[in-house]
């Protein structure tokens, strides 16, 4: 019923069971400095249970079994020496007998030279604390009152000064308040100020309250540092000094992994962009350095497979992101063949849209990408600001792929662009073109997808041990044993759906966006380009456009449907044929600037014209007779006759009078063409006014 070492509570007193006999229990009071083992009848203990005065309770020294002192430490040496001294006593069968116990204690004293008080104290501690050698460990944890404040009333705490003059400052509640102000204002911030700087500011504040004190009596650096270490926890220091952005991105504990939140391939893609650490040259003129390209990566979180990418000189934006997304969602076989790689769909099986797409709060925010969410069922997820670690999979991939070409490629960004001590500007070493660089990245992606072994990939519990840790193997295993989340869209519809959209205006000239006009047969059938007040057409309509070419736009006649028809560039906007929309915007800006400059000159000349007209009018008003003897009715009746006289004068003035010609001699005639040739100006009336449907 009773077990050795269990602790019992009897009338608010704790006892430890040392031995159990048939009718008796040998126990000892746990918290009594003069206690010895004593017997108690089991029947009496059972009666105590019934009277509810005896209960079993927790062992107050249960933690000592977990303590392992450092080898060679003072605590370990004292424990072993003290246990070796009392070992004959505690192993004595009749140690509970006072006479036998006394004889053994006398023998130990004679052999070891220790006092009786020490032997009894060690034995008592051994019995009271669980009858294990660790019970004899010194109670160093109680030394020094760790964590408790010392309060000085009249004299400074600590050792007196030996070299520095003066006594030192007394650290009271007021001084600690000033410590806290200086620390929280200058140390516990993300400004990077040193503790010495904070201590100097403390002394500035302290001297405002006690201006007569000499420098030697001000609170020292050590006193302030001691307060800092005692009052502020490590976590608090780290969090305050890092700031929210750095704390969340680089310091906070990571308790999970990206793959743990996805069930299978295609459940979540991550997309991000970076500027490559290499300078490239022009494809057409290798002597021209064109700068650093932008790399967009789209990666499956479950398998770490690269689903698609974009390499070019577009800044990180929606225009570049949609090209990477389009590649990630379609068959890459043809693209690889154009780059000189023979790749089958089985080797790069990422064809379709994922369930979720995780991106930065930038290029994929706003109404432009809503069609991907509403029309194709892709859930868009955006990371919080300054939290790049939220897309750790794609962020880490940039470093992986750039390490492939950096050791071998010229023009890699290294060191400083400024030449120092004879260093060469690495930009001048650029040799690769964008096509060659793309081929390198594509080869790296193919290797990564099919063969790269991910040593740190955290497998799920149901993944077999013989499954290779490469993206293609994990992708195929996920499709077979988990759930495939890819949705395969129509390539052309997806391409148009990912294009940026805007509201276009409609008039009898056609559909207009950015000042460029478009027409189509569908617009004519709808009657939206006919002229007349009775023509009804929408004022604005949604259109999609490809930034790379301005020759076509895609008009959505019904906002509730994803159906569209193609509109081509109108004749009135033929100047933008073959241009991109970036060219359109640039030319439009140049035209507006030219128009504004011409408008300034026109306004100036218009004012000059108005002044000239006003001057002529003034002269005419002065020259007009006030009264010529005719009534107003007579003047009006004479208008027709006056007009005829003026017309006759005008005809005589404009009559052509040739010089006299000598007709006595005949001139030789030279024909420009044969007499039968038709030299009339061609007539294009039929072509100009023929209906478009007849063409």
TrEMBL record:
Name of the featured protein: Transcriptional antiterminator
Molecular function (Gene Ontology), one example: nucleic acid binding
InterPro entries found in the cross-reference section: Integrase_cat-core, RNaseH-like_sf, RNaseH_sf, Transposase-like_Mu_C
Any Pfam family: Mu-transpos_C
A biological process term (GO) from this entry: DNA integration
Composition skew (Basic residues), residue ranges: 147-159
Boundaries of every Integrase catalytic domain copy: 261-472
Region annotation (Disordered) ranges: 140-159
TM ranges: none
């Amino acid at each position: 019923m009773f077990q050795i070492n269990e602790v019992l509570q009897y009338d608010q007193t704790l006892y430890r069971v040392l031995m159990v006999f048939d009718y008796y229990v040998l126990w000892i009071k746990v918290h009594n400095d003069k206690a010895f083992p004593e017997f108690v009848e089991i029947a009496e203990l059972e009666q105590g249970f019934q009277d509810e005065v005896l209960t079993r309770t927790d062992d107050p020294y249960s933690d000592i079994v977990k303590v392992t002192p450092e080898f060679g430490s003072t605590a370990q040496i004292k424990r072993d020496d003290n246990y070796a001294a009392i070992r004959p006593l505690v192993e004595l069968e009749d140690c509970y007998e006072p006479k036998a116990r006394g004889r053994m204690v006398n023998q130990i004293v004679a052999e070891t030279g220790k006092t009786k008080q020490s032997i009894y104290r060690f034995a008592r501690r051994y019995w009271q604390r669980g009858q294990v050698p660790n019970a004899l460990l010194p109670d160093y944890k109680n030394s020094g009152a760790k964590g408790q404040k010392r309060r000085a009333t009249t004299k400074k705490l600590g050792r007196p000064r030996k070299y520095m003059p003066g006594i030192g400052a007394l650290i009271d509640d007021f001084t600690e308040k000033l410590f806290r102000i200086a620390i929280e204002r200058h140390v516990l911030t993300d400004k990077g100020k040193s503790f010495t700087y904070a201590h100097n500011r403390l002394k500035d504040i302290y001297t405002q309250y006690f201006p007569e004190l000499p420098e030697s009596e001000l609170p020292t650096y050590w006193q302030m540092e001691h307060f800092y270490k005692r009052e502020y926890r490590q976590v608090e220091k780290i969090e305050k000094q890092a700031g929210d952005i750095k704390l969340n991105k680089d310091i906070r504990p990571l308790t999970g992994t990206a793959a743990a939140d996805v069930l299978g391939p295609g459940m979540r893609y991550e997309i991000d962009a970076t500027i490559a650490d290499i300078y490239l040259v022009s494809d057409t003129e290798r002597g021209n350095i064109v700068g650093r390209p932008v790399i967009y990566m789209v990666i499956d979180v479950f398998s770490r497979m690269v689903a698609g990418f974009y390499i070019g000189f577009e800044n990180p934006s929606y225009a570049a992101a949609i090209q990477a997304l389009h590649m990630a969602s379609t068959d890459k076989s043809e693209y690889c063949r154009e780059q000189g790689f023979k790749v089958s769909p089985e080797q790069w099986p990422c064809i379709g849209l994922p369930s979720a797409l995780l991106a930065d709060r930038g290029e994929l925010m706003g109404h432009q990408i809503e069609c991907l969410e509403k029309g194709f069922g892709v859930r868009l997820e955006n990371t919080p600001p300054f939290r790049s670690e939220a897309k750790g999979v794609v962020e880490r991939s940039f470093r992986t792929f750039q390490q492939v070409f950096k050791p071998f490629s010229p023009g890699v960004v290294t060191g400083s662009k400024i030449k120092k001590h004879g260093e060469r500007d690495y930009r001048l070493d650029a040799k690769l073109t964008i096509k060659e660089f793309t081929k390198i990245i594509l080869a790296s992606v193919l290797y990564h997808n099919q063969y790269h072994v991910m040593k740190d990939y955290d497998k799920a519990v149901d993944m077999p041990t013989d499954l290779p840790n490469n993206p293609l193997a994990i992708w195929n295993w996920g499709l077979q044993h988990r759930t495939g989340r890819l949705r395969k869209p129509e390539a052309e519809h997806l391409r148009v759906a990912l294009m940026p959209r805007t509201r276009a205006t409609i008039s009898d000239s056609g559909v207009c966006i950015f000042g460029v006009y478009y027409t189509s047969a569908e617009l004519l059938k709808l009657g939206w380009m006919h002229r007349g007040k009775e023509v009804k057409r929408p004022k604005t309509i949604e259109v999609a456009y490809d930034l790379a070419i301005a020759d076509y736009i895609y008009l959505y006649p019904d906002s509730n449907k994803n159906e569209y028809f193609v509109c081509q560039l109108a004749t009135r906007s033929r100047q933008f044929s073959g241009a991109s929309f970036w060219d359109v915007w640039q030319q439009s800006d140049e035209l507006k600037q030219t128009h504004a400059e011409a408008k300034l000159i026109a306004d100036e000349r218009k004012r000059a014209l108005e002044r000239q007209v006003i001057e002529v009018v003034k002269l005419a008003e002065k020259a007009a007779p006030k009264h010529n003897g005719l009534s107003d009715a007579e003047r009006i009746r004479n208008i027709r006759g006056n007009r005829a006289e003026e017309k006759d004068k005008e005809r005589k003035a404009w009559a052509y009078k040739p010089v006299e010609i000598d007709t006595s001699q005949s001139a030789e005639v030279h024909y420009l063409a044969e007499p039968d040739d038709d030299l009339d100006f061609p007539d294009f009336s039929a072509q100009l006014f023929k209906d478009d449907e007849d063409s």
